[in-house]
Amino acid sequence: MGNIPDSHPRKASLLSRQRIVDATKDGFLADSAMIAHGRGEAFDYLLGEKTSDSAKLAIKEVAARLIAAKKPVISVNGNTVVLAGKNIIRVAAVLNCPIEVNIYYRTEDRMEKLNSFLEKQKELLSQENSPEGWKGDWSSAVMSVKILGKVGDGRIEGLDGPRSVCSAEGIERADVILVPLEDGDRCEALVNLGKQVLVVDLNPLSRTAKMATVTIVDEISRAAELLLEYTIKNDQMPTKWNNNGILNEALEIIATNSRTI
Ligand code: PTJ
Fold first, then answer.
1. What is the average pLDDT across 190-199?
2. In a 3-state reduction of DSSP, which class is residue 147?
3. How far is the centre of ligand 1, averaged over its atoms, from the C-alpha of 52 (Å)?
4. Closest CA relative to residue 71, chosen from 194, 159, 160
């Protein structure tokens, strides 16, 4: 995969696909991770494989709400860690908020692997220069990001079985949760608990996209990069957000692109 020329129009997509393939072999991902990724790819293709202006507005809104939150948390699953783990850690460092590994297909082995992967990434990122526009001690900001989730001492009321398990210090007590690639039931349960649920989902028709407080209809690695930029910029307060409006705009883009393909 290293030999895809930069000029290849779908280079980013092919590299992401390979990351998913490699991480599956290494046991980081759920068996159905490729199916989920493929569904995402199909929607991304229809969206033109770029971040729309309305998705940019949603990313800005998410940045503002995470900054204004009292107890924010970023919940990550396997696909998110593999595709956007580095920028998610950078965002958490800027926000000074924890990351919780919370996976749909929970096994001790995957929890352990994802957790130690993020801890290793933290060490690497702590050696890098601080991101553009950020001032302060980057190394200590990165190393202070707590990776939660191994201890499942919290519960999400309204869900049964392993899906209800979470960290008491993370999701259970959070007022604002950023949770990319969320599933519909859990999104609904978290909203019912009075939490703000901020999601990233390429499918504007998914139950998650419709249930969430703010939906970013964009690919997670692109969205995470912009979220980092906007979180550092910190130039906006949360607004009175019309999430249905943003979903309709995504559907309009798909409709327009479908006519011109
Ligand atoms: O790591 P686990 O055990 O938590 O499992 C993670 C997956 C993603 C396998 C699990 O949550 C799952 O099965 O998800 P779904 O129900 O298939 O939903 C995935 C949603 O994410 C779909 O609506 C996809 O369109 C969307 N999606 C997939 N890839 C991306 C994406 N959205 C943004 N960026 C992507 N790269």
1. 98
2. strand
3. 20
4. 194
Query: Where would I find the beta strands (DSSP E) of 201-237?
Result: 214-216
Give 148's strand partners: 100
Is residue 118 domain-resident?
A: yes
Q: What is the CATH number of the domain that holds 97?
A: 3.40.50.12640
In a domain, 145, yes or no: yes
Question: What is the tens place of the pLDDT at every residue in 102-133?
Answer: 999 999 999 999 999 999 999 999 999 999 99
Query: Inter-axis angle of helices 108-126 and 78-95, to 10 degrees?
Result: 40
Expressed as residue numbers, the domain containing 95 is 53-259
Question: Is residue 86 situated within a structural domain?
Answer: yes
Number of domains in the chain: 1
Question: How remote is the CA of residue 91 from the centroid of ligand 1, in Å?
Answer: 20
Q: Take residue 252 and report the two structure tokens written for it.
A: 């309009």
- Report pLDDT digits (tens) over 54-73: 999 999 999 999 999 999 99
What tens digit of pLDDT does each residue of 195-246 get? 999 999 999 999 999 999 999 999 999 999 999 999 999 999 999 999 999 9
Q: Which among 62, 113, 163, 181 is the best mutation to test ligand 1's pocket, defined by most ligand atoms within 8 Å of the CB?
A: 181
pLDDT at site 163: 87
Question: Does residue 146 fall inside a structural domain?
Answer: yes
If residue 256 lies in a helix (H) or strand (E), which one and from where to where? Answer: helix 243-260
